[in-house]
């Protein structure tokens, strides 16, 4: 009697898997279960593996900057990496600006970049490029897989590196033949993340000496030191020592609002930044960089601190920042001190002209509990921080690297990471046009994102910078490079064309009505605010 032939599923289980299948299984085994993708020919076996193997959520972006920006926003909220899938050197190049922002936000990310079949690069065909060279400009770990038998180990190493503190970007280059070739290694590899560290006693002692000196001391925070629990320990230190808490200007995520610790950011304008540090005799860095303005200006300093002040770098990148603050509080004898929390305070709704501050007041008053605010409003939203101090508890995500075009994609990633929370994207009109395609992804994935576009019809930040750098007045040709009129852009039509419900607000009352609608509904909604 002849044995029955196995069905297709049984044959697939018996056949050795190809490299792409092992890669997907390894990512899943290492808790990477979201892939933001913009694939091409070289990645088709990986796409097929994603289709065959359950467990990976695949999210298509219509431009690689949307893909990398979404992975940035996802990691900020999930505290673990997503994978990106990018096509050869040009695809990786298209995603670099938001990889820059992600690196500055110190997030974990694993990029899978397809490459030509090994040997084909000798032909120098049209899409050939130096993928590793491009990746090294923004990534902490770069490796090209040389064999299907190595994929499991290589992928696990990429995730391990991404998960190392404070969060790093790893790029695995995947030649097409390593993806389609069968491998003898069926099992995924799992590597434990590198353990976080704590500062040496000498670093703690230097910080304690400053805190006990009685002199003006600033505790400058960033990274995971800006989470709610860590901020409470920082506040205990401040209450016991008299030190002042300050966040660096650009941060990946801050947990703030009523019932949480009050903390201000370093001002962006250089003169205000210098004033913030003028009286400080000691500056203790916890996850933060040496305070400096974003640009160099004629006759202005390159650093914000008084040169005579003492800089104390308490932490290193590998340190566990919440644990550092808890230990510092204990060594200071401040563990029992009460943190200073933001009390309830009235948040009146705006009335009058539809100005940027009116928009910020409306959002601050109406935002729901545990909203996620993604801020790429640049100049229009600069007052959001003080205006929203007593808003409902929320997470604040901002543009970290200064490369505009991260806001809409970041909102995509945050919404994928936190499906039960409303995402509010404060978006500049000029910035939005870099990655406007992200609205299509919001529509396809039915993401709960409210986008507010400040339509001031120009790059207002650059008009201010013309004066700051001493370039003086400008005429019609310069104005053409700083404004986005003639023709005017309709964000309502752009959003509707990509499947997102949208409307325009020209008065404060229209804005309030649309805000209430957008906050109450599920799914993406865009408000184009025509500013007075």
From TrEMBL:
GO terms for molecular function: acetolactate synthase activity; flavin adenine dinucleotide binding; magnesium ion binding; thiamine pyrophosphate binding. GO terms for biological process: small molecule metabolic process. InterPro entries: DHS-like_NAD/FAD-binding_dom, THDP-binding, Thiamin_PyroP_enz_TPP-bd_dom, TPP-bd_CS, TPP_enz, TPP_enzyme_TPP-bd. Keywords: Thiamine pyrophosphate. Coiled coil: none annotated. Gene3D superfamilies: 3.40.50.970. Residues 393-529 form the Thiamine pyrophosphate enzyme TPP-binding domain. PROSITE patterns: TPP_ENZYMES. It holds the Pfam family TPP_enzyme_C. Residues 18-121 form the Thiamine pyrophosphate enzyme N-terminal TPP-binding domain. SUPFAM superfamilies: DHS-like NAD/FAD-binding domain (SSF52467), Thiamin diphosphate-binding fold (THDP-binding) (SSF52518). Belongs to the TPP enzyme family. This is Acetolactate synthase large subunit.
